[in-house]
């Protein structure tokens, strides 16, 4: 039976023993499937399969290169010598591998924990938003010596690039325009609030639910709003409010971390945009 992997925010810890990677015994090694474990735990596996998704490990564990992109984040050094299986690559493939490896290791430095550390999986004072951090974690956990790992790295790099462009565009978009675009997305789905009074009340309730920065699921947030809205607005339903919340969350997923749903709601109330 596959084992459930920990959260992506625990990218500096072994997925099996849950201990932080370090330079001696617990050196990180990534598999083609994108899961990373310490060398000690990998050597103890009874089957040559990833314990999290049952992907077969096609290369001998002792021949898999260590993940120096992660190792450098816990104080490790990147050696010049490479494993023998890397040296057996063709001249062109060897050159491409070195270039890709260097790029990934340089990008990984953006995940280096500052003195303020991390809160709720988000690096404090980091130049990267949470979505960017997550996509970068996916990239640095790719095993470049395996075909599946290279395919994953290509997809992760593309996703990271697309997110970078999106955030760059949004950084040049003022809050008023962003708020107007979000409400336009709601209207485009046919999710009309029944009058400004109901809209104002929904905004208040969403802000109330998020004011303590709780990580609420969409379902919980919708139920919170509907239960408090129905006594005053009987026409409110889980479907209508759910469509609105989904629309807002989907649009805000493209925004920098600085523009949270609670912050946007607060701005919208002050500006009193009306659908």
From TrEMBL:
One annotated GO molecular function is: mRNA binding
Q: Which residues form a coiled coil?
A: none
Protein name as it appears in the record: RING-type domain-containing protein
| Gene Ontology annotations for the cellular component aspect, listed alphabetically | cytoplasmic stress granule
Q: What is the lineage of its organism?
A: Eukaryota, Metazoa, Ecdysozoa, Arthropoda, Chelicerata
Keywords assigned by UniProt, alphabetized: Metal-binding, Zinc, Zinc-finger
**PROSITE patterns (UniProt xref):** ZF_RING_1, ZF_RING_2
Give the record's GO biological process terms.
Answer: nuclear-transcribed mRNA catabolic process, deadenylation-dependent decay; protein polyubiquitination; ubiquitin-dependent protein catabolic process
Residue span, RING-type domain:
14-54
